[in-house]
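Lab meeting, item 3. Inverse folding demo.
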């Protein structure tokens, strides 16, 4: 019997998947989004049980996995860091064996990439990386879907990411763009440039796909001609002691209207994985305002609320794309090899 090329696989990082496979997941997400809008049921995971492990906080990823599981007919179970023994009294390996014997699939959000890999190795069920310090692969399917929805294609587009060039989202954008033939500019101060090995890896993909990779600290050069400007927080989860350092380093890399204009394109879109520091409506943003005297960080409120903004479409797309990833790897779908 012909089995799907996805069945039983984990999504731990983007390089585990080919260009065709990533494109399939993007297009399948669009299809499932259409089914959802039309009210057509798509219960590919009827009767399955999904574990949702979270060491770090989440709004989008948790909600997306929960709603997607239920839409697919599965039961999601949230297992937060304070609810289970993981790390405190039980190793990742032992936890993986237990969860794998009860659940059909496992989502993991946490610190170490090694842990999500260990879960996949020892659980015997598909494991989906909901963000680690190194990668954010489920985010990528939503991001590139959002790009495709806006421009009708991916190849040849230019995405400029500005800010902390060595965090999980920057790593994932660099590699995924290179695999998919999207030009990626990482625009950040030199001290926050991506790891050289990662850049080399991206360059190798880019040679095959025609993607152009630019790593630069020059904002003008980095954003010129960009179809999308992409921001992430300046301080990622787990680095909360770095506000001062990052504000000093990254203020020139804030996405504001001047930067938007510097793309030279009226139709450039704003992407942001969210949450965003664009106002002072949160505890952390108020703390930053009090201590450092600024009310906006990686993106101004003006751009965030402008005609360029697509970050909430992107957030919605997290649900459709996570649904596609779960259905493709666990739903016994007929997906012939491309
Ligand atoms: N973009 C993203 O992963 O959001 P959450 O942290 O809310 O899941
Ligand atoms: N780089 C951010 C992404 C949040 C979705 C973080 O790790 O906190």
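The presenter then showed the designed sequence:
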């Amino acid at each position: 019997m012909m089995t799907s090329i996805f069945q039983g696989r984990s999504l731990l990082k983007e390089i585990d998947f080919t260009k065709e496979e990533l494109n399939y997941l993007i297009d399948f997400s669009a299809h499932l989004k259409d089914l959802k809008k039309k009210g057509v049921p798509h219960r590919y995971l009827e009767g399955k049980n999904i574990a949702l492990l979270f060491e770090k906080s989440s709004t989008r990823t948790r909600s997306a996995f929960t709603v997607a599981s239920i839409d697919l007919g599965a039961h999601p179970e949230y297992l937060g860091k304070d609810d289970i023994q993981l790390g405190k009294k039980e190793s990742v390996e032992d936890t993986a064996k237990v969860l794998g014997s009860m659940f059909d699939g496992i989502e993991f959000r946490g610190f170490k990439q090694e842990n999500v890999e260990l879960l996949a190795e020892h659980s015997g069920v598909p494991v989906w990386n909901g963000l680690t310090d190194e990668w954010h692969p489920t985010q990528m399917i939503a991001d590139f879907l959002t790009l495709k929805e806006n421009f009708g294609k991916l190849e040849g587009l230019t995405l400029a990411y500005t800010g902390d060039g060595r965090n999980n989202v920057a790593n994932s954008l660099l590699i995924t763009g290179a695999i998919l033939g999207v030009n990626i500019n990482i625009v950040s101060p030199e001290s926050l440039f991506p790891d050289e090995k990662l850049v080399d890896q991206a360059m190798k993909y880019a040679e095959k796909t025609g993607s152009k990779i630019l790593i630069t600290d020059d904002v003008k050069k980095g954003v010129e001609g960009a179809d999308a400007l992409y921001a992430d927080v300046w301080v990622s989860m787990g680095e909360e002691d770095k506000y001062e350092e990052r504000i000093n380093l990254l203020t020139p890399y804030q996405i504001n209207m001047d930067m938007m204009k510097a793309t030279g394109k009226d139709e450039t879109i704003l992407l942001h994985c969210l949450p965003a520091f664009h106002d002072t409506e949160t505890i952390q943003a108020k703390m930053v305002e009090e201590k450092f005297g600024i009310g906006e960080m990686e993106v101004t409120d003006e751009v965030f609320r402008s005609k360029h903004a697509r970050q909430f479409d992107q957030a919605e797309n997290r649900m459709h794309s996570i649904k596609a990833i779960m259905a493709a790897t666990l739903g016994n779908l007929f997906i012939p090899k491309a």
